[in-house]
């Protein structure tokens, strides 16, 4: 399916105002963030989101070297003069990337907003703070959010169990996690996992969040650099078409349901260990999915929210109609209590 038509019930030509603590802290127009995604967060997509008033994010480790990251940020700046963030995901690895060099590249590029994820941002906070960079830390629990708050981050992105990628091991969905975070945190926070449209933004705001982060929804846009076949697969899929892999290893990841992820689940459920599935989950195979469009080539990440994604619009259209629909939904619901 390649239909790019707007299926939203709301008009998108107006630019409603929607200011929250998050937009004020980050200097953006709308509380809609395009999350940092491996192989997806490149200049064209990030710039399109930011130009529409949201916050686009370039993924640092998608770039092969720190110098390439600086060039990618510069390329994004030729497409928009609005704020753009960079994601730096820190994960345990046998051969870890040069995180310190990527951090310095972010600083050298003049980036003012960073999304950290994967593990504690503490090793990076001093240099980012000294450089005037505001940090949004992505986490999957209230306790981790409180730790990030104590480290001085500007905002938190709280990721519910519905999300793509790593949902943590607590299995707490957004309907509980978002208000729990609202009760505990004093800094702005945005809700992640399960958001695709204005209904989700309205719900997140009602639950106490200051905005939303969307990953899978922005994967499925015109500017997203992944293959058209993958976008069409997301449109065709339902909320049931994901697998949770690595559950038995206590390193859960939500990925697209295909023959490869089915096999990974089977092997691990039968008592296998990581070496038994390592060839199946190699990152190079996942990259092949995104670049060549072979959805059975490897493991690739998408969230349950794909069941709410029905078209392939521009990224700017996603931002505009999400905000417009959220405003309409909130007004309609409040009118019922008038």
Automatic annotation (TrEMBL):
Gene3D superfamilies: Aldolase class I. Signal peptide: none annotated. GO terms for molecular function: monooxygenase activity. It comes from the Bacteria. The keyword Lipid metabolism does not apply. Keywords: Flavoprotein, FMN, Monooxygenase, Oxidoreductase. This is Nitronate monooxygenase family protein.
């Amino acid at each position: 399916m390649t239909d790019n038509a707007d299926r939203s019930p709301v008009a998108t030509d107006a630019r409603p105002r929607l200011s929250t603590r998050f937009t004020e802290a980050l200097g953006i127009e709308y509380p809609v963030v395009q999350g940092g995604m491996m192989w997806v967060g490149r200049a064209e997509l990030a710039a399109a989101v930011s130009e529409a008033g949201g916050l686009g994010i370039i993924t640092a480790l998608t770039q092969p070297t720190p110098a390439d990251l600086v060039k990618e940020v510069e390329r994004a700046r030729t497409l928009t003069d609005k704020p753009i963030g960079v994601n730096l995901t820190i994960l345990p690895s046998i051969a870890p990337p040069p995180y310190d060099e990527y951090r310095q590249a972010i600083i050298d590029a003049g980036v003012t907003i960073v999304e950290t994820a994967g593990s504690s941002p503490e090793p990076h906070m001093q240099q980012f703070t000294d450089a005037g960079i505001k940090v949004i830390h992505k986490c999957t629990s209230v306790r981790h959010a409180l730790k990030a708050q104590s480290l001085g981050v500007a905002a938190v992105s709280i990721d519910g169990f519905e999300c793509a990628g790593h949902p943590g091991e607590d299995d707490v969905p957004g309907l509980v996690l978002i208000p729990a975070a609202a009760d505990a945190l004093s800094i702005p926070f945005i809700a992640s996992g399960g958001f695709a449209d204005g209904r989700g933004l309205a719900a997140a705001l009602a639950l106490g969040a200051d905005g939303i982060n969307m990953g899978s929804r922005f994967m499925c846009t015109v500017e997203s650099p992944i293959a058209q076949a993958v976008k069409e697969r997301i449109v065709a899929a339902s909320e049931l078409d994901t697998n949770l892999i690595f559950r038995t290893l206590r390193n859960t990841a939500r990925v697209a349901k295909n023959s490869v992820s089915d096999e990974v689940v089977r092997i691990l459920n039968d008592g296998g260990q990581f070496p038994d599935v390592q060839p199946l989950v190699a990152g190079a195979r996942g990259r092949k999915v995104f670049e060549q469009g072979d959805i059975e080539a490897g493991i690739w990440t998408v969230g349950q929210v794909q069941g709410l994604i029905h078209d392939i619009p521009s990224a700017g259209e996603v931002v505009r109609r999400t905000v417009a629909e959220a405003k309409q939904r909130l007004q309609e619901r409040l009118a019922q209590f008038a």
